[in-house]
Predict the structure.
Amino acid sequence: MKEYLMALDQGTTSSRCIIFRRDGTVAASAAKELTQYFPKEGWVEHDAKEIFDSEVKVAKLALSKAGLTAADIAAIGITNQRETTVVFEKESGAPVCPAIVWQCRRTAADCEALRRAGYTPLIREKTGLPIDPYFSATKLSYILDHVPDARRRAERGELLFGTVDSYLIYRLTGGRVHATDPTNASRTLLFDIHKLAFDEELLKLFRIPASMLPEVRPSAGFFGETDPALFGAPIPITGVAGDQQAALFGQGCFAPGDLKNTYGTGAFLLMNTGKKAICSESGLLTTVAFQTKNEVNYALEGSVFVCGAAIQWLRDGLGILQNAAESETLAASVPDSGGVYFLPAFVGLGTPYWNPDVRGTIFGIGRGTRRAHLVRATLEAMALQTADVMDIMQKETGLTPGVLRVDGGAAANRLLLSLQSDFSGVTVRRPACVETTAFGAAALAGLSAGVYRDKAEIAALLHADAEFHPTLSPAGRKEKLSQWHKALNAAISFS
């Protein structure tokens, strides 16, 4: 049996490839930064061709670093930024316009019109999602309405729609397979999560030709083979999951109540709810966690739009940090934030508010405020937003997890994880392998390809690197959250 699994991890800010050994350790990795385009305030775009080219490049580089060839790879797993929308030609695979990124807010007015028209209950019942520019449907409608001749070509069957996974699959297979999995499909606002199928009523509402849509296959399933010309030999693609669901799987969150948070550009908290799709009354998202050959698991999700991006802003926008790692040292140089509260709502608020109009706000600045206080307030904001979402999840499910499993770039920040434990009131556990998103994709691929017998075998490979336990008293936690909510409500009222 082949011992290596390749994960293609296509994120918001970079394209990466990680090659895993069967035991879950990393054999080699490669990464390439992805260009961000901001043509207007609140707009975010990517070059889809750059996405594909960069993933092929890093895959070749990782193979070279590991001293392997395509023939050594048992299977490929793909994980990706989710709601980002690509429209491309069926014949050539060429994108017809820039990809509209999940962060992009250009369709806020369209979403508001749908809400005023009373479509919220229908859409939430079918998709588990609110009406928000975050998701793919309004982005796709925008492209069809604004790219010259796009709607006519789509209705003639000349154009295809894909989230990033399905665009990559199409290009990797030489146009032979146009497919996605339920975790990505469930983020489009077009997919009935109960029937596990795209919904005709929603397609009609958003004016989307059904011919554009990819086939939906299990997350641990067969998605074709790569074109031999790409890597020298075909490699089966047998695992696909959106990045947050992949991280849930890669953290071994296989049982109801298991919980993980990923600190990336945004922060995404997911709780496995088992075979039950729980409809939230508090603004949480209901989504597909994963689908294997034998089962479907659902999850509740809280989406914080800005997390690590706030640290990037401190570095690149304000110039008060040399690098992201400096945030921990600087924030630890003061005992607290000095009464400063920072709401990093650069592109609006996600869970549970779903308000695209709120913007970043800083409260409590005094004459004695220094940059260290602002940096600490930023780390606190990352933890406080997550704590809010976690509290809602516990109330809606009745499940009280004792452990929060964490990953993502900012999980390297020990102060952040300590603050997270304090504000959430639970143990925070960081895994030994921080590449949990990529490993989740690789594990799904390995499960489908027979590299792993079952999920128990995958779970046995997972080990903790560090744990953080609450040091803040319940009264101290309550006071901190109260002040945070006061700042939050003030920012919302100002919008």
Notes: The longest strand covers residues 296-304. The mean pLDDT is 94.
